[in-house]
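Lecture notes, part 5. Sequence design as translation. It can be helpful to think of inverse folding as translation between two languages: the language of shapes and the language of residues. The source text, in structure tokens, appears below.
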């Protein structure tokens, strides 16, 4: 354990990304049931920088928020946020970071871009499924509420994450 550089990086990067995702949650614009935040930028960046280990800070972020730290959008905390309309997106963040991370373990630009696109789609998939369940919405109202207003912003955040990732790598 002593002198394990990889483990030290994972711990340090995890702390940094938990803080960045929390910071991104404070930059929030309410749009219906789901706020527009910068969290997805940092979730994807966690996968880009930490590869498969990028899921660790996102999972810890969700756990810490459920345990009562005011990390979710606008300083909210607790299990109620996870069970509320935005809960599906928060769970989707974990898988999105993992997918992005696995894609970034490959050298292909196409796989990396595809990983970011698929990761964003996974966030939407979890979010829409949870909106349909928690709010008893049909498929089209859930898409209209939980995807369409966010596509342009998420495309910009995904492109920004890719460009930042190129600069860092």
């Amino acid at each position: 354990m002593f002198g394990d550089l990889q483990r030290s990086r994972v711990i340090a990067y995890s702390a940094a990304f938990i803080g960045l995702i929390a910071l991104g949650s404070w930059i929030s614009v309410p749009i219906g049931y789901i706020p527009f935040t910068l969290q997805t930028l940092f979730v994807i960046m966690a996968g880009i920088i930490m590869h498969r280990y990028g899921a660790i800070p996102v999972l810890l972020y969700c756990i810490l928020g459920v345990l009562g730290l005011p990390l979710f959008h606008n300083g909210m905390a607790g299990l109620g946020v996870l069970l509320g309309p935005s809960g599906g997106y928060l769970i989707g963040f974990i898988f999105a970071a993992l997918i992005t991370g696995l894609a970034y373990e490959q050298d292909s630009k196409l796989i990396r871009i595809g990983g970011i696109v698929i990761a964003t789609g996974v966030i939407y998939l979890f979010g829409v499924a949870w909106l349909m369940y928690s709010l008893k919405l049909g498929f089209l109202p859930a898409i209209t509420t939980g995807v369409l207003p966010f596509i342009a912003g998420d495309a910009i955040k995904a492109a920004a994450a890719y460009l930042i990732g190129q600069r860092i790598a």
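The translated text above is only one of many valid answers, since several sequences can fold into similar shapes. The first strand starts at residue 28 and ends at 31.
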